[in-house]
Each structure stands twice: as C-alpha cells, then as structure tokens.
C-alpha cells in the first residue's frame, strides 16, 4: 500500500513562529483522542542538524559513524538514519512500514501534499502565491479574501473540526 493512497497526509506550513508546532500538537491530540494512529515528520529548517542528546548510547553510535541507529524501550523505538541528503518522498516512504491512519508533516513548504498555511503577518501572504495544494489558511493578522477556507488563529475549535474532517477523507 503506497502511503497517501489509503492514509491521509497533511502538511502544516508557514514561516517561523507562525504556530506550526502548536497546530501539530493540537491535531495530534485531537486525532489520537478520536482513535486515529498519527505519525509525524518535522523539517528542521533552521540550519544544521537537530540537536541530539550526546549522552545516549544511540547518539554515541551515530557519532561513531553508524548510518542507522535505533533504541527501543517500553514500546518506543527511536530511529536515526544518516545520509548526505533526504528528500521528503524518501522519508515518507519509510512510513509505509508502519500501521498509521494519517501523517502530519510540519514544514517542507514546496512539497505537493495538501497544506494548511499559517500566516502570522501580512508579509507572509506571499506564501499563498508560492504554494500548491492549499486546504485552508489560518491567519493571525486580518481576514483575507481567498478561495480557500480561512480561520482566525482564535477559532481553534472551528479549524480543528475542519481539519479532523479533512484528515478522515479518503
């Protein structure tokens, strides 16, 4: 089964400090309360590798040169795979092996998956011309005249309900 054919993929995009991680947390919480199995991918777009706790054995294995490391405990598996560069499609393909209902992706603005766009300032509106496959827009500053469903950042219940419906669509 190819991911995306039977499992919903939804991207959360916007510039730094627009509320992407908060929205991800809200969606993950809502989806899991409704019995959905959720997986996530986050783009670390701030330059450099994400920080790893160097005291953990798996981090030590990675530092020693292992390209794939994993650690399991209490039913949790932490996996790290090193290679020169990752395409989002390659990362998404890894998730094919797991029994999930939906995949939430934070970032990767240029990818082709359905997107929720967060706009914190008027200057952020340029994203609406640059991005494809927009499902809805959540704004901080003013209501917009766009062809997508739009929500104020303060309309949490409304946009969570809308997105949960979207995540359950085939």
Automatic annotation (TrEMBL):
Domain Molybdopterin-guanine dinucleotide biosynthesis protein B (MobB): 9-138
InterPro entries: MGD_biosynthesis_adapter, MobB_dom, P-loop_NTPase
CDD domains the UniProt entry points to: MobB (cd03116)
Signal peptide start-end: none
Alphabetical list of SUPFAM superfamilies matching this protein: P-loop containing nucleoside triphosphate hydrolases
Protein name: Molybdopterin-guanine dinucleotide biosynthesis protein B
